[in-house]
């Protein structure tokens, strides 16, 4: 006999049913049974006492908007909205689905509709407490497990309970679909992949590149190790765009992962949801929020090479009622990476506070400070036209210079408020500000003019900085027109980025050529003194959005999402003397970006959809190798058609989509000028899977097949550079049955061939990398201890990540984590 209690998604379980034993054993087990029952009843009594007053005060009927899906999820949502205490054995609802609930209902009628087809019924036990039972219940001789759905479980706590290793890292919701807010993952008419906090932790990710590697649809384009802002490629389009807690941002440097709850990747256009952004997709970083129960966790480890670090994660409530919660994350890291001479020295401190002022009014605050220093960032490579792509040189060597340094200091503040005025109206406002200072920004570029050697330029730049702010003010209105229910979202959201550049940027000029056998390192030059007032106000980009959308539910099978966003992009560019930048003229452009989706659910576990969406996008930035380097192109209009399907198959969420996207084509022409001409059209298919194939075997993976073409312009009929035809990934974990607590993992990541130039005269070979790992969970002095080991790029393969950067060499990461 075993007995345990644990909390999951705000529920309480009394695990391991207690079987009735033969008479010879009854005396021996009596004490244990009584203790188990007493503990369970005592816990239930405490929960009931805490919630009884709220449950009794709940109105006789309320309006519900519960989507079809698993019966457990529907009952959880019903308990939160109704304010009742609902008790039932978890095995009673396992594997069952519900048609959902739309409209205004009392307790009995509402639950009865949720239970349709389940052969279950509700029993009112008085004092706001209800139980479920089978309509015909024979005496089984078992004391069943008990589940309590509590009204005070917050959405934050529900989010924190998703994506666990025990669930195969599968999540059920998206925390923020831009202006629309949170949505059920199965029901959303968009292709979305979520990398949960526990998966981030178990692969020991320290930068967005590690997340992009494992996410089924993403490919790192500009690695964070380059010293530039991390750039991701989705559906063949590169983007620096990102969001944080649903607030649209522009690019940012030195992103840390230890204070992130999850990373949500929206594949495809997001103009209606996030405003001006790349048509490839949007990456939303969700920050950790306070925990209901006390959390004290320390992790010590090594991210590879000699990058030793310590990470403390602390959360809980300041008061017994949980009205004020806190979350603190502290990180200190220092040491060399797996690349020669490359070193990362960083400090991170983040704080989150939640104020549950009333049951309907919540205020969230947050702030963080990051100091990120990098020595010998990854070099940028450029092959001149007509020069064939050489075999990738040794990526563990420093092809930059040992004295090249980058430093980024980041300060961030965030505030959110959510007010549920009543069952029909919710108001949401939010604001986030981030200041990034770059006191040092040295870089190297390697130019290859022949297969036998390369030339190098070293650039030493002065102080620069960026100030960014994002805000939103939105309202959600729920109502019905006859039998049709609506959830209308309307309001404003937008962001502003201001940049101060430097007129001080001495360089060595092109030196070389040097051979590919080993890097050539030289002494640091004596740079000229920094002149006074070298930093100047260089540019400002603003994107304002006014949107309205309606999620319409016609019946249990058919629904639609329609809306439009009026998006306006304004930019200004200035020279050091304050005059208008001739290569970046001021502009202002507005456009309506519509979106329309039709959703059909033939059965509760299957969703099909068709979506059309448009978007306005800020023009790209000319690369450093262009004659008009860093010039920003005019805004572009993008369009996307997509059909998709999502299915819950056992413990796996399987998603697939066909898409067709078009946008203006941007490239560097024969004269070296970066410009727009013609359009780029990417058509493809993608599929992804998250979940458990068996109780012991978890999978996270996906495949993207892509056909990208240029239509019109100088390169009509060609293929855009750096767009692989195939992206295939599979990460898997298996819990070994013969060693309790030990899991082994492995990842296989394949990137297909891609053209390295716009003229399609040189092609990068396909590459495949393999990762291996293991995780062991045990106890030391009564406390859980988790040991992790991950080997990335086991074969130590050298490869071109894309035209500009080498891939990462083999590295070994390990850590030990213990809560206390």
TrEMBL record:
Principal cellular location given in the protein's record: membrane
Top-level taxon of origin: Bacteria
Motif TonB C-terminal box, residue numbers: 803-820
Region called Disordered, residue ranges: 572-593
Occurrences of domain Secretin/TonB short N-terminal (ranges): 84-135
Subcellular location: Cell outer membrane
Pfam family, one: Plug
UniProt keyword annotations, A-Z: Cell outer membrane, Ion transport, Iron, Iron transport, Membrane, Receptor, Signal, TonB box, Transmembrane, Transmembrane beta strand, Transport
Key word Ubl conjugation present: no
Membrane topology: Multi-pass membrane protein
SMART domains the record matches: STN
Family statement drawn from the similarity comment of this UniProt entry: Belongs to the TonB-dependent receptor family.
Full protein name: TonB-dependent siderophore receptor
Protein source organism: Herminiimonas glaciei
């Amino acid at each position: 006999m075993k007995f345990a209690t644990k909390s999951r998604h705000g529920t309480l379980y009394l695990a391991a049913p207690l079987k009735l034993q033969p008479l010879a054993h009854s005396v021996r087990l009596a004490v244990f049974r009584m203790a188990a029952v007493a503990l369970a009843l005592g816990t239930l009594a405490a929960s009931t006492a805490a919630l009884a007053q709220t449950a009794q005060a709940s109105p006789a009927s309320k309006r519900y908007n519960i989507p079809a899906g698993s019966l457990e999820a529907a009952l959880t949502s019903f308990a939160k909205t109704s304010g009742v205490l609902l008790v039932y054995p978890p095995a009673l609802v396992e594997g069952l689905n519900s048609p959902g609930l739309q409209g205004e209902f009392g307790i009995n009628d509402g639950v009865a509709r949720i239970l349709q087809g389940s052969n279950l019924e509700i029993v009112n036990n008085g004092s706001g407490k209800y139980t479920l039972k089978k309509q015909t219940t024979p005496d089984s001789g078992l004391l069943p497990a008990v589940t309590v759905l509590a009204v005070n479980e917050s959405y934050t706590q529900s989010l924190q309970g998703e994506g666990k290793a025990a669930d195969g890292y599968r999540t059920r919701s998206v925390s923020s679909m831009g202006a629309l807010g949170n949505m059920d993952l199965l029901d959303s008419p968009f292709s979305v992949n979520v990398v949960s906090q526990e998966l981030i932790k178990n692969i020991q990710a320290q930068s967005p590149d590690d997340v992009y590697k494992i996410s089924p649809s993403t490919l790192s384009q500009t690695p964070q190790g380059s010293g530039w802002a991390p750039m991701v490629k989705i559906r063949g389009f590169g983007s620096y765009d990102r969001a944080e807690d649903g607030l649209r941002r522009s690019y940012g440097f030195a992103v840390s992962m230890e204070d992130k709850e999850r990373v949500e990747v929206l594949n495809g256009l997001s103009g209606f949801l996030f405003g001006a952004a790349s048509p490839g997709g949007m990456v939303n970083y969700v920050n950790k929020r306070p925990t209901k129960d006390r959390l004290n966790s320390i992790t010590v480890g090594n991210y590879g090479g000699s990058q030793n670090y310590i990470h403390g994660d602390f959360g809980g409530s300041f008061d017994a009622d949980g009205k004020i919660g806190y979350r603190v994350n502290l990180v200190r890291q220092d040491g060399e990476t797996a690349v020669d001479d490359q070193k990362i020295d960083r400090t991170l401190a983040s704080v989150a506070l939640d104020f549950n002022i009333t049951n309907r009014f919540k205020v969230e605050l947050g702030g963080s400070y990051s100091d990120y220093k990098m020595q010998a960032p990854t070099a940028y490579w450029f092959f001149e036209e007509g020069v064939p792509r050489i075999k990738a040189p040794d990526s563990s060597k420093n092809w930059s210079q040992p004295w090249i340094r980058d430093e980024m200091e980041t300060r961030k503040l965030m505030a959110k408020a959510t007010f549920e005025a009543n069952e029909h109206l919710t108001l949401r406002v939010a604001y986030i500000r981030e200041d990034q200072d770059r006191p040092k920004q040295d870089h190297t570029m390697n130019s290859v003019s022949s297969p036998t050697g390369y030339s190098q330029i070293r650039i030493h730049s002065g102080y620069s900085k960026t100030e960014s702010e994002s805000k939103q003010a939105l309202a959600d209105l729920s109502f019905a027109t006859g039998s049709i229910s609506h959830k209308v979202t309307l309001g404003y959201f937008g962001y502003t980025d201001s940049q101060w550049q430097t007129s001080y940027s001495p360089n060595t000029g092109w030196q070389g050529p040097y051979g590919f056998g080993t890097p050539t390192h030289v002494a640091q030059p004596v740079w000229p003194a920094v002149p006074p007032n070298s930093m100047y106000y260089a540019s400002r980009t603003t994107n304002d959005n006014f949107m309205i959308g309606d999620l319409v539910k016609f019946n249990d099978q058919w629904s639609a999402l329609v809306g439009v966003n009026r998006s306006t992009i304004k930019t200004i560019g200035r020279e050091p003397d304050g005059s208008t930048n001739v290569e970046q003229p001021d502009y202002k452009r507005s456009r309506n970006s519509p979106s329309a989706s039709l959703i059909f659910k033939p059965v509760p576990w299957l969703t099909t959809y068709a979506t059309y969406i448009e978007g306005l996008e800020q023009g790209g930035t000319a690369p450093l190798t262009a004659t008009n380097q860093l010039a920003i192109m005019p805004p572009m209009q993008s369009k996307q058609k997509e059909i998709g399907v999502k299915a819950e198959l056992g413990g796996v969420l399987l998603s697939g989509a066909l898409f067709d996207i078009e946008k203006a084509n941007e490239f560097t022409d024969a004269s070296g000028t970066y410009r727009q001409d013609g359009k780029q059209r990417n058509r493809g298919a993608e599929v992804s899977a998250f979940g458990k194939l068996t109780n012991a075997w978890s999978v996270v993976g996906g495949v993207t097949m892509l056909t990208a073409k240029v239509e019109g312009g100088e390169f009509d009929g060609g293929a855009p550079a750096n767009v692989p035809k195939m992206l295939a990934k599979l990460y898997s974990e298996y819990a070994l049955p013969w060693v309790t607590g030990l899991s082994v993992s492995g990842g296989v990541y394949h990137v297909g061939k891609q053209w390295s130039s716009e003229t399609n005269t040189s092609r990068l070979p396909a590459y495949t990398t393999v990762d291996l790992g293991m995780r062991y969970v045990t106890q030391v002095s009564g406390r859980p201890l988790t040991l992790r080991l991950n080997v990335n790029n086991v074969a130590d393969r050298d490869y071109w990540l894309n035209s500009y950067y080498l891939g990462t060499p083999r590295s070994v990461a390990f850590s030990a984590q213990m809560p206390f």
